[in-house]
Amino acid sequence: MGCGRVGSRRPRSLGVDVGSLTQVVVVDALPDRVWAAVRDVGGVHTRLLPDRVLKTTVEGDTRTLVMPDRHQVVELILDVDGEARRLAYCAVAGARPALRHHSASFQVLPVDNGRTRLV
Fold first, then answer.
1. Which domain holds residue 27?
2. What rounded mean pLDDT belongs to the chain?
3. In this predicted model, what pLDDT tens digit does every residue of 39-93 receive, in sequence order?
4. pLDDT band at 29 (very low <50, low <70, confident <90, very high)
5. Strands 86-93 and 12-13
């Protein structure tokens, strides 16, 4: 299992189109504060998901998340882009349910009145 760029092609798995999901959340916090939490790749267990991730370790570009049941998810950090305020990563082991390919990103965008759109 790995991560890769597929360009403009849509990935296919076993002859079936792979799904894509976009989630948008408006956060009542300043974009700089939200970006500080998102870009802190080693702070998932304290800053983003304290009730869902027990521990986070980072070695080079590999992040390991330990869940409350001690299950581990290993992710490859692909990019932390401070100018675009975008974090991209992919799961390389331990995803539940088991996935052939999983890549994800967070992007922090200003909205209004000190709020932030997290995509």
1. 23-118
2. 88
3. 999 999 999 999 999 999 999 999 999 999 999 999 999 999 999 999 999 999 9
4. very high
5. unpaired
User: Beta strands 72-81 and 62-66: pairing type?
Assistant: antiparallel
> Is 71 domain-assigned?
yes
Per the domain annotation, does 12 fall within a domain? Answer: no
What is the rounded distance in angstroms from the CA atom of residue 34 to the CA atom of residue 75?
A: 21
- CA gap 52, 48 in Å, rounded: 9
Q: Phi and psi dihedrals of 104, rounded to 5?
A: -150, 165
* Predicted TM-score (pTM) of this structure: 0.81
Number of domains in the chain: 1
Helix (H, G, I), strand (E, B) or coil at 43: coil
- What CATH number is given to the structural domain containing 95? 3.30.530.20
Residue given tokens 């370790």 in the structure block = 57
